[in-house]
Structure formats: C-alpha cells, structure tokens
Write a structure and sequence with these properties.
Blueprint: H1 10-24, H2 36-61, H3 67-90, H4 92-98, H5 106-132, H6 139-162, H7 190-205, H8 212-215, H9 218-236, H10 240-246
Helix pairs in contact: 1-2, 2-5, 3-4, 3-6, 5-9, 6-7
Amino acid sequence: MNDKCYDTSSATRLSAWIIFCAENYNLPRNGRGTTEETEEKIAVLVPTFFLGLGLIFFVPAGTLDYWEAWVYCAVLLVPFFFVLTYLLRKDPELLARRIRLNEKESAQRRIIGASSLIFFTGFLIPGLDHRYGWSDIAVEAVLAADALVIVGYALIFLVFKENPFASRVVEVEQSQRVISTGPYALVRHPMYLGTSIMWLATPIALGSYWALPVFLILPIVLVYRIMNEEEVLLRELPGYREYTQKVKYRLIPSIW
C-alpha cells in the first residue's frame, strides 16, 4: 500500500494540478469557465470521495489485503482523472455543471437521499463479505466485472462529449437545446445506462454476491429519477416532446 494515497494533503496537490491544467490549456479563470470556486470544489470533493471509498472498503474488511477493492479503486480513479483532464481542457463549463449539488426539484432530492442510502449500504457490504468470507467469486468474474465498469464509464464519457448540458442536477438552462446525436440517438438517457452498467457490475467487481441485491435497487430508483426528469424536460425544454417521439426508448434500447 502507498499511504500517500490517503494523505490529507491530497486536496492541495490536486488543486495545484487543476490550476496547472487551467494555465497550460489557457482555460478561463473567471466568468462561466473554470473558476477558482470550481477548482476549490474539485480539490475538496475528489480526494474526499476516494478517501471515503477507501474507508468504506477497508475498515469493514479489517485489512488492506483486499485486492478486489484496490483494483476497483484503480478502475474508477484512472478513467476519472482522464475525464477530469478532458473536461478541464475541452469543456470547463460542463465540469462546473457536473459538480453542482443544489438540486431544485423536491422529488429529485428525495431520490438522491434514497440512492445515497443504497450506495452507502451497497459499498459497506463487500468489505464485510471479504472479512467473513461469505462469497467466493472467481478472479475471472471479478475482472470481467471491472471491465464492465470501464464500459459504463466509457459510455458516460461519450455523453460528456456529446452533451455540454449534462448537468448533475435536473434543470433546463436558458440556452439549452435538445441533443439527439451520438448515444442520444439510441436512448434518451444514455448517461443513466452507463451508470447502471457501472453500478450493477460493482458488487462482483468487489467480490461480493451479497451486495448485489442492494445494487439491484438502483435501476428502480433511476426509473423514478428519469420519470421526474422527463416531466421537467417536457415542460421546459423546447423540442423535447418531438425528440421523445423520434427516440422511443428511455434507458434500454428496444425495451424501455
């Protein structure tokens, strides 16, 4: 183990890296681009997230000798920094949208609360599973699940490239337009398809059958999120109703 991965100075180093990228890619530091506030949020949120993952995996496991968790963290971390660097360079406004946390819709706030509880429980169980040896999953299955996590991440990245309005919160901006190309030509919510692939593969990637039933709840939560989101889009986004008539499926091609 490299203890520097959990050094509390990670936020400082990450902030320096973000500023380095901003300066070298000539990104705007004011206005609607990559602002200092955005950099500060990233510098706090990113190390906090990965530190939290480390704690929720290894504390219940009671050991650092948990290779599935190490591989899973790497599978998340490496593509994450690739995508973060891409957004810093190509679309800092989208990056700012992706770190917004002030959800306006009350229904969405309830959905986020429910999904947070599911994630906490789902990520807690694999460490306990590892400690007490509840599951015995073949190495090949674990690595195949890691590959699926990467596939889901790749689909999300395609969404970022195609849709500059892919905000974390449900909202319609004044200049927003309907996106109907790329993955949006197949389903209306391809980012949620990508996240579904990632999270459904996560229990096996972490070596736990027992966490799978918890993560299976997430697609149900996503259905509620999609239904509420589409109400907002139909009400506020010009052209979205016509788009729904053209692209029939919300999440899974030929199914729903």
